[in-house]
Amino acid sequence: MIKVGDSLPNVNLTEYVPFEGEGCSVGPNVVRVAEATQGKTVAIFAVPGAFTPTCSERHLPGYLEQLPALKAKGVDEVWCVSVNDAFVMGAWAKASGAEGHIRFMGDGSADFAKATGLTLDLTAKGLGLRSTRYSMLVKDGKVAQLNVEEGGAFKVSDAGTLLSQL
């Protein structure tokens, strides 16, 4: 499992970015994680699935609410990562009101989750391999803080915890 001090893996995530006005998606756009975090402070929170109850009702809203405070403490970007495709993540961003504020990154094949060792096997529940719920502060491509939940818990990966660690 990735730990504080480690560099993020050199894998790709995908992001849906809509055109201005009517039209199709510009994406899914490839986001090269190692490159996209260089020279930045990025708060990443990962969830088992878009549109799922805890993720939609508690985890995401906390980051949206704390976004100004996170930015005031030096966070350049906030990313939400989930083992979903970029189109689902884009729909969740729009439905939640977070579009344009938080970057929603799809990890469709769980490459990022596997590379970090932060996987959660929900096959028995019909959800397959997912990401563990966690939060991570990344500075210049390296993990500065890591808060990993046990099982399906939601105790340490919330925005308030990460904010208090800045």
From TrEMBL:
Enzyme Commission number, as recorded: 1.11.1.27
Active site per database record: 55 (cysteine sulfenic acid (-soh) intermediate)
Q: Which SUPFAM superfamilies match?
A: Thioredoxin-like
Entries under CDD domains matching the protein: PRX5_like
Any one GO MF term held by the record is: thioredoxin peroxidase activity
Biological process GO annotation list? Answer: cell redox homeostasis; cellular response to oxidative stress; hydrogen peroxide catabolic process
Keyword Magnesium recorded: no
- Gene3D superfamilies, per database record: Glutaredoxin
Domain Thioredoxin: start-end pairs: 2-166
Which Pfam families is this protein grouped with? Redoxin (PF08534)
The record, for InterPro entries, names: PRX5-like, Redoxin, Thioredoxin-like_sf, Thioredoxin_domain
Q: Which UniProt keywords apply?
A: Antioxidant, Oxidoreductase, Peroxidase, Redox-active center
Reactions mediated catalytically? a hydroperoxide + 2 glutathione = an alcohol + glutathione disulfide + H2O
Family listed: Belongs to the peroxiredoxin family. Prx5 subfamily.
- What is the role of this chain? Thiol-specific peroxidase that catalyzes the reduction of hydrogen peroxide and organic hydroperoxides to water and alcohols, respectively. Plays a role in cell protection against oxidative stress by detoxifying peroxides.
Please state what the protein is called. Answer: Glutathione-dependent peroxiredoxin
| Organism whose genome encodes this protein | Comamonas serinivorans
